[in-house]
Amino acid sequence: MKIRIINPDYGVSPEAMAERCAMLRPFVGPDVALSMVCLTQTRVEIDSAADVALAGPEILRLARQAEADGCDAVVLYCFSDPAIDACRETLSIPVIGGAQASLLLAPHVTRRTGVLLADAQRIPEKELFLRTLGLAPERIQAIGAISFGGRDIWQYRDDALRELERAGRAMIEQDRVQCLILGCLSFLGLAAPLSEALHIPVLDPAGAAVAVAEAVVRLGLKTSRKAYPGKSPEGLEK
């Protein structure tokens, strides 16, 4: 099985993408090959709704290329699930988003879910966005964020973990949160140590996405054309 991961940030190095794939390997079976690509033409990082719109055409092109390469599923490596509907309309293989995958896994382990973002300014946007993903709104007990001052999460991992622990502990005490979802895929690898520190389940959206993609493929499921009417590739940017 081959799963193509689309990182919607511009110019991620091949070494960094290989590192992320290696970190995701434990979440899938030994017969699953993970590969990652990123934007090379659209100079954005997904930090706003405008970024999502600008990145959309190249994400769609990369998704179509994944299907042409013989991949069995596409994963969108972003908590905004950018261009997911467009990809589902266009591809015949499953397309899985990190936000939706992690959010819909949470009820298996909790009644009250909290989401921790990397930027407090995006809380109002996510409050509306998460309601569209299929989970009853009352299950999302709280949405919070760390204060990281624009620092690179990958460069300051220990600091990021400490901030997540601080914010997560406050959500547990104040909002009675029983489980946390990490609302940024730059938090990859921090779910396990955070869960150990807080003594509650913590869902990693990247891990959730590749695991769900594998399960969907093994179950032989395809995107419903009743839900996502097929879009002819004619006229789409190649």
| Approximate strand percentage | 15-25%
Please give the alpha-carbon distance between the first and last residues.
Answer: 25 Å
* Low-confidence regions: none
Rg to the nearest angstrom?
17 Å
Q: What value does the average pLDDT take?
A: 95
Structural notes for this entry:
There is one protein chain. Helix 3 links the parallel strand 3 and strand 4. The chain starts with a strand and ends in a 20-residue tail after the last helix. It has 238 residues and is α/β, with parallel strands linked by helices. The strands form two sheets. A four-stranded parallel beta sheet has the order 2-1-3-4, sandwiched between helices. A four-stranded parallel beta sheet has the order 6-5-7-8, sandwiched between helices. It is globular. 42% of the residues are buried.
Describe the secondary structure blueprint for this structure.
Elements: E1 2-10, H1 14-24, E2 33-39, H2 49-68, E3 73-76, H3 84-90, E4 95-97, H4 98-105, E5 113-117, H5 123-129, E6 140-145, H6 157-175, E7 179-182, H7 191-198, E8 202-203, H8 205-218
Parallel strand pairs: 1-2, 1-3, 3-4, 5-6, 5-7, 7-8
Helix pairs in contact: 4-8, 6-7
List its salient traits.
alpha/beta, four-stranded parallel beta sheet, 8 helices, 8 strands
Question: Short description, anyone?
Answer:
By secondary structure, this protein is of the alpha/beta class. Helices cover 39% and strands 17% of the residues.
